[in-house]
Amino acid sequence: MDYQRRKKLTNFTIGLLFLAGGIEYAVILPTIWAYLQTLEGEPYFLGLAISAFSFSGLITGPIFGYWSDRTRQTKAIILFANLFQIAGNFMYFVDGSKWMVLSSRLVAGVGTGAGASIFGYLTRSTTSQERATVFAAVMACRQVGLIIGPACNLFLCLFDFRLGPFMINKYTSPGLFMCLVWVLLQFLVMTMYYDLPLLPPPRSERVVPSSSDALEKEEEEPLMRHEGDQPEEVVVVETGGYGSTCAEARGAVLGDEGRYVPNGHLADEEAACGAEKSPFGNFSAWQEYLREEVVVLLTAQFITLFNQTALETMVTPITQRYLNFGELENSLMYFLCGVEVICSFFLVRCLSTRLQDRVILVVGLVICNVACIWGLLFLARPQGSFAFLLTELVVGVFLQVLGLPFVAVSQVSLFSKVTAERTQGFSQGLRRSVGGIATILGPLWAGSLTENLYIMLGAMMVLLTLLMIMVGLSYGYLVEPAGDSAASETAQEEGSS
Predict the structure, then answer these.
(1) DSSP 8-state code for residue 161
(2) DSSP state of 11
(3) Residue in 141, 126, 120 with CA at minimum distance from that of residue 14
(4) Which domains are delineated in the chain?
(5) Which of 225, 396, 415, 492 is the most exposed place for a label (fewest CB within 10 A)?
(6) Dihedrals φ, ψ of 242, to 5°?
(7) CB neighbourhood size of 19 (10 A)
(8) What is the maximum span of the chain, computed from C-alpha positions, in angstroms?
(9) Nearest residue to 407 (alpha-carbon basis) of 264, 483, 307
(10) Alpha carbons 197 and 195: distance in angstroms, whole number
């Protein structure tokens, strides 16, 4: 089987993994509260069960990412992570106690850490120009799963029988269903996923001077040197396959006049002079992740996910209180939102071939700010007829859902470009961990302020304003190094030729 066919099968399998993640979220979430009630679970257990899933993924993301950086392999990591998905969903299916449900979500969440390794693989196997397009397609797969999930519940809710010692009903059947889905995916990963050799990046060409050139240069050398005229030693460093010099590495970080310039992860090249060729050789988390552009993108990750999960928590009480929406109406609303998100992802995919990532990020943030202002004006205290209230809600939700894919895709793509490629798995795990913290805090914040939406939406507006200021001040830094971009294009051409 040729390289391109194996790559297509691998990417198809990655799409199925993200699709299954979306289906699981949409299958488990609608019934977990009723399931806990049958097990005499207190209301706070719902928050614990949902947060446990995010918490374990928050911990394991950097670990799996570090593993993939060290081995440059992802297949074994995915197979290992899927075992936790299988075990966790089987535990959810076993009708035991509220503690079993909580433990099941904690175990299943471990498997989500493999996403860091997958994003690391996608970063290393794509050029910078096509990266945003690939990320948008992968994220859209998860959104398709969020639409398919509710449809699966339509037949799962009909289950009501006993299989040996296990009771299969509308509460336990989602666990059994997802357990079987992950078992099937385990076989697909074993047969269709390949740890492909990454495209070789170009090595810097070393010019060997001719004998005449050497003599001519020797004649031009002064007989005596002053103390400050010592030539700078040039040592070729290979990091991740690229050839560079210590002098170039210093210039990449400090510039010609010792000032700070963006994309300082190239400082790793200087630290790697004379070091072993290892993805974490002389790695400094302080230098890598506390740079201005990286902090801005991690902040964007946190604030957008915090606001998204807070709004998801807020919408259902609003529709119930002011519009008398039931389960059917809310399901239809979430379905339409899912369709809009998918369309938005494909819109971003098309725009990413024409616009820079930072431009798409700004567009998304502007839309999110407009949505939040709309919420403060019309949704914090809705008034008017049913038609007017419905219009207010539709416009607010439409704007919020429209802006999310712009921000999500652009900040993931930018983050992969301003952090070192050789530690991309760990970096993506850190990014997803920051997002995991946001998905834990967002629902807790919104759930405690459903009766005071002005405070809740006002705090979200403050966070978005802060993010806009940070992006504006750091706009010049939110760009890929020109050298990395050229090298990526050359590597792609060499690999395809």
Answers:
(1) E
(2) H
(3) 141
(4) 1-198 (1.20.1250.20), 286-497 (1.20.1250.20)
(5) 225
(6) -90, 145
(7) 22
(8) 96
(9) 307
(10) 7
What pLDDT score does 279 carry? 57
Specify the 3-state DSSP secondary structure of 257.
coil
pLDDT given at position 79: 93
Query: By CB neighbour count within 10 A (0-12 exposed, 13-18 middle, 19+ buried), where does 44 fall?
Result: exposed
pLDDT along the chain (497 residues), means of 10: 84 91 83 80 75 84 86 89 93 84 90 87 80 81 81 78 80 89 93 76 41 44 45 41 41 41 45 47 66 90 88 78 76 80 86 88 93 87 83 88 88 86 83 86 77 85 93 88 52 45
Q: Which tokens belong to 204? A: 């810097």
Place of tokens 């801005």: 296
Question: What is the pLDDT at residue 456?
Answer: 85
Given a contact cutoff of 8 angstroms between Cβ atoms, the answer to whether 112 and 21 are in contact is: yes
Contacts 24+ apart (CB under 8 A), 100-103: 101/32, 101/35, 101/36, 101/39, 101/41, 101/45, 101/49, 102/45, 102/48, 102/49, 102/52
Q: What is the DSSP string of 325-375?
A: --HHHHHHHHHHHHHHHHHHHHHHHHHTTTS-HHHHHHHHHHHHHHHHHHI
Dihedrals phi, psi of 236, to nearest 5 degrees: -80, 130
DSSP string, 187-250: HHHHHH---PPPPPPPPPPPP---HHHHHHHHHHS-SS--GGGPPPP--EEEETTEEEEHHHHH
Query: 160-191 burial, b if ≥16 CB within 10 A, otherwise e?
Result: eeeeeeebbbebbbbbbbbbebbeebbebbee
Q: Give the DSSP per-residue string, 443-482.
A: HHHHHTTTT-HHHHHHHHHHHHHHHHHHHHHTGGGSS--H
Tell the residue number behind the tokens 């969440």, with chain if given: 109
Which residues have CB under 8 Å from 138's CB, separation 6+?
A: 14, 15, 18, 118, 122
Phi-psi bin for 239: left (phi > 0), alpha (psi -120 to 50), beta?
beta
What is the model's pLDDT at position 183?
A: 94
pLDDT of residue 482: 62
- What six digits make up the tokens of 185? 């995916």
> At what angle are helices 75-93 and 43-71 packed, to 10 degrees?
160
Q: How many CA atoms lie within 13 A of 275 on its CB side?
A: 16
- Residue at 206: amino acid letter: R
Structure tokens given for 231: 């030539």
